[in-house]
Amino acid sequence: MFTGIIQAVGRIARIEPRAGDLRLSIDTGKLPLEAVVLGDSIAVNGVCLTAVALGHQGFSADVSRETLSLTTLGALGVGARVNLEKALTLATPLGGHLVSGHVDGIGTLLERHQDARSTRLRLRAPEALARYIAPKGSIAVDGTSLTVNRVEGAEFELNIVPHTLDETILGDYRPGTQVNLEVDLIARYLERLLLGDTASDPSGSARTEALSQDFLARHGFA
């Protein structure tokens, strides 16, 4: 688990094809690695990866075909900047929100403009994720915990303060940039819980029913 508070910006140092998938070596920059051991989890652009090798300036992690197909990691080149966060502990302040490091989909930046000292971003999420994105709710974008300002269909807006632009890769974004999205953990589990006994329906029809006022009424929540 993570908090979505980025601890350092690193760079992809090496990409090694390995029998159909990849091993990434990452220069971790200012991220402290003294307490990191083999097998620890580190989020790279919001993707939870396992450290399989450690060095003085970074770590290496294997990236499966599943992860490559569902995230932006496979599109990164050597030198690409990445957001980094070590896994939280019970002593870690929860400054952002609970982030699992399991990416739900890839979004696309549509627009970027200044708003006083802040920067406004408008992104499009995959349509299947739209139901989980709510105004003033939380979302992780490349591992960064952010508050949703406005939602219209599958598009949503974010307000990025200067500190976040300086300490993450969000300042690099331009229209067309693709990003890893993880929706709010509670929203995903709440939807599943509301299905009740129908969650075990093997036809899958229960899993695709929209969350609506009628749905809530039929299940005793309204």
Whole-number mean pLDDT:
91
Helicity range: 10-25%
Order of secondary-structure elements: EEEEEHEEEEEEHEHHH
Radius of gyration: 18 Å
What is the class of the largest domain in the CATH system?
Answer: Mainly Beta
Descriptive overview:
It is a single chain. The protein has 222 residues and is mainly beta. It folds into two domains: 1-88 and 99-183, Beta Barrel (Elongation Factor Tu (Ef-tu), domain 3), CATH 2.40.30.20; 187-218, no CATH class. Helices cover 14% and strands 38% of the residues. The protein is built from five helices and twelve strands. It has helices at residues 65-70, 162-167, 185-194, 205-208, 213-218, and strands at residues 8-18, 21-27, 41-44, 47-54, 58-63, 81-86, 105-115, 118-124, 138-141, 144-152, 155-160, 178-183. The protein has a six-stranded antiparallel barrel with strand order 1-2-5-4-3-6. A hairpin with a 2-residue loop joins strand 7 (105-115) and strand 8 (118-124). The longest helix is centred in the C-terminal third of the chain and has 10 residues, at 185-194. The protein is globular. The model has no long low-confidence stretch (mean pLDDT 91).
Topology (SSEs and partners):
Layout: E1 8-18, E2 21-27, E3 41-44, E4 47-54, E5 58-63, H1 65-70, E6 81-86, E7 105-115, E8 118-124, E9 138-141, E10 144-152, E11 155-160, H2 162-167, E12 178-183, H3 185-194, H4 205-208, H5 213-218
Antiparallel strand pairs: 1-2, 1-6, 2-5, 3-4, 3-6, 4-5, 7-8, 7-12, 8-11, 9-10, 9-12, 10-11
What characteristics describe this protein?
38% strand, 222 residues, 2 domains, globular, mainly beta, 6-stranded antiparallel barrel, single chain, Elongation Factor Tu (Ef-tu), domain 3, 12 strands
